[in-house]
Amino acid sequence: MSFPSRRLSVQAILVVATGVLSLIALSAVAVAVGLAIRSNVERSVFADTQRAATDWIGSMDTARPPPPVTTSDVNLLQLVDSSGHVVSASKAAAGRPVLSEVWPPSDDRIQQHTECTDSGCVMFTASRPSPQEEQVLWGGESHVVFAGRDQPAILSTYRLELYLGAGVLTASALLVVTAWLLIGQALRPVELMRRRIAEVTVTDLGLRVPEPPGGDAIARLARTANETLSRLQEAVNHQRHFASMVSHELRTPLTGLRAQLEESRLYPEMDPRVAIRDALVTVERCQLIIDEMLMLARIRTSPHRPALVDLSALAQDEAALRSTKVPIQVYADEPVVVCGNPVQLAEVLVNLLRNAQRHARSRVEVRVRRVGGLAEVSVLDDGIGIQPEDRERVFEPFARLVEARRREPQGSGLGLAISRAIAEAHQGSLTVEDSLQGADFVLRLPLPDDTTPVPPAR
């Protein structure tokens, strides 16, 4: 089911909501104002008619008083006896029938009413003189004075409602226009951000959205968008650099493979088994590069399943498997348990041990310990070491120093890059530290606390 609000913009939805709410609120105010005006007009009219009746009664001194002289809007005055005959009347009321058949009782001598006929509505006060006045003037016979006037137009028509309705519609329209302008101005930075983000392409990630001043939600959104674009640009640049290095590393063995195959085709007298053997060596190198490249991509993008891993036991096991080469001495006085992927952490230790044995002269030392809230694994060899300016470059994919190329010409240059990626995926770090001799690779991983959700050790 499709709702109209889904097809409206945020600005239109807010403006419609403003219009509806303002119409409801102003209508309620208009109804209250209309009722108050009507009530005030009625009270004013009845107060005038009551005053006119009281004044005329107070001026009577004979049984048939002369017609009263009216000087206000209350121009309909009649004195009626108990038989219903008009004894005296004002000029406007002369010749008219009795204004009403209402006859106030002695205990409620003043009553106010509105009566309507075909000629219109009259608002009047029926006032009965006191018993003493009736006794003095008419020998105790009851009389009633009617004082009234035609109902004001504001009460007899819907003119007031029309005026109030027009005012409500006008005010609502002004509020809607004002809301449209104000909301449009408030959302203008968002529209500018949308347009700028729409201009961002893979080939040009250097654009940034304009950041409005202040610390409101829109300003925070702009800053977050720029931070996201910066991370995206950094990731794309890294991928481009990585793809360029992969292409470069694969081009050399593939070019050699093609040369070997073409040579075997051009010179049939060559032993094909030698050509196949050399081609297989080249294919194995390409496969090694591709496998390690896929591993590096999976580490950076795939979540690992955590488990409790004892780094001390892991280091001793891996060192025992590699004891046939340069001797490895492991110093681990106590279990050091971290939360991580055991297969990936074992891959880090294998890479570090392989790298250390490749460059060591006589020995490799592995130390596993706790330092503060971190688990620390140090792999130290007694080789020539790594210069300070090269300590970060060795972790770049396919980066190989001269000594590494000399000792292992067929290496891929991805082992240390994979190891650092695994460390960072585990919220840790892998760096080269200062040492008196050789290269000291230090892996640091956070120790689990009571709030770390991990399965039991297996």
Automatic annotation (TrEMBL):
**Name of the molecule in the record:** histidine kinase
Q: Which Gene3D superfamilies match?
A: 1.10.287.130, Histidine kinase-like ATPase, C-terminal domain
EC number(s) stated in the UniProt entry for this protein? 2.7.13.3
Give the Histidine kinase domain ranges. Answer: 245-449
Q: What transmembrane ranges does the database entry give?
A: 12-37, 162-187
Q: Which PANTHER family match?
A: SENSOR HISTIDINE KINASE TRCS (PTHR45436:SF5), SENSOR HISTIDINE KINASE YKOH (PTHR45436)
The answer, when asked if Transport is one of the entry's keywords, is no
A single GO CC term for this protein reads: plasma membrane
HAMP domain: which residues?
184-237
Could you tell me which species this protein originates from?
Answer: Nonomuraea zeae
Q: Which InterPro entries match?
A: HAMP_dom, HATPase_C_sf, HATPase_dom, His_kinase_dom, HisK_dim/P_dom, HisK_dim/P_sf, Sig_transdc_His_kin-like_C, TCS_sensor_his_kinase
Give the keywords, sorted: Kinase, Membrane, Phosphoprotein, Transferase, Transmembrane, Transmembrane helix, Two-component regulatory system
Q: Which reaction does it catalyse?
A: ATP + protein L-histidine = ADP + protein N-phospho-L-histidine
Where in the cell? Cell membrane
Q: Name one GO molecular function term.
A: phosphorelay sensor kinase activity
Q: Main localization of the protein?
A: membrane
